[in-house]
Write a structure and sequence with these properties.
By secondary structure, the protein is mainly α. It is built from 12 helices and no strands.
């Protein structure tokens, strides 16, 4: 049955016939095969007509509704990720699969936080500078702040800051700030980048997990031995799409 559904030239017509002729449990499996091999066609079907066709086959109707939730979630996530593409324009990144994309973002996040000496207690480098009073220490840590800031600029590139509307400063402007505002500016940079990176990692992981749920959903199919009768004669294809 799987091969028949997979290779048919008239998938909607075949689906119509099989759903009419089989019980609820068998229809669940038929639907999963159809979704597995003809997802693009499924997206064009009239859902109300399809559910009406199932009539009192509650498990099949529930299956379709559950699948639609997964599909809607995935489409929404994909739309959000497409918006990221316009901001995070690293070409090689978008040629990677989702697992490699997550690895890349996590590695980037680790490199970013290592610049700020992040530890398990979230005691970042710039936090420790807020209460420094000694002039010689202030001079040393001002240079250290700019050194780390420069590494962050280099790690992400100018377009990242521009696309995310994160304010950047020149070396001259940075050193013109008083010490407190230097620390505040570095804190601002840190939290802005941390926000976007954590959001991106979350979205890509969510997309991966949802994709896994869809694949799991479609893989859980019991073998079917039903061989359909002739189904290409009296049914109007346009009536069910």
């Amino acid at each position: 049955m799987e091969d028949i559904i997979k290779n048919t030239k008239f998938p909607v017509l075949l689906l119509y016939v099989l759903l009419l002729k089989n019980d609820d449990e068998e229809c669940c499996n038929i639907l999963k095969y159809f979704l597995k091999y003809h997802l693009e066609i499924y997206l064009k079907l009239n859902m109300s007509k399809l559910i009406k066709l199932l009539k009192e086959k509650d498990s099949s109707i529930k299956l379709l509704k559950n699948f639609n939730k997964l599909l809607i979630n995935q489409i929404n996530l994909l739309n959000k990720i497409k918006k990221i593409k316009n901001k995070f324009n690293k070409n090689r990144f978008w040629y990677k699969n989702v697992n490699k994309q997550i690895e890349y973002l996590v590695d980037l996040d680790n490199k970013f936080k290592s610049i700020f000496e992040c530890n398990k207690n979230l005691n970042f480098f710039h936090y420790r500078l807020e209460y420094i009073k000694k002039e010689t220490d202030i001079m040393f840590f001002t240079n250290e702040l700019y050194f780390r800031l420069s590494k962050v600029y280099k790690l992400f590139g100018y377009s990242f800051f521009k696309n995310h509307k994160i304010l950047i400063t020149t070396e001259l402007d940075f050193f013109d700030l008083d010490y407190v505002n230097k620390v505040n500016y570095v804190s601002y940079i840190f939290f802005k980048i941390e926000y976007y990176l954590s959001r991106y990692i979350y979205l890509f992981k969510l997309y991966k997990y949802n994709q896994h749920d869809i694949e799991l959903f479609l893989s859980d199919v019991k073998p079917l031995d039903i061989i359909p009768d002739n189904f290409d004669s009296e049914i109007d294809y346009q009536e069910i799409i």
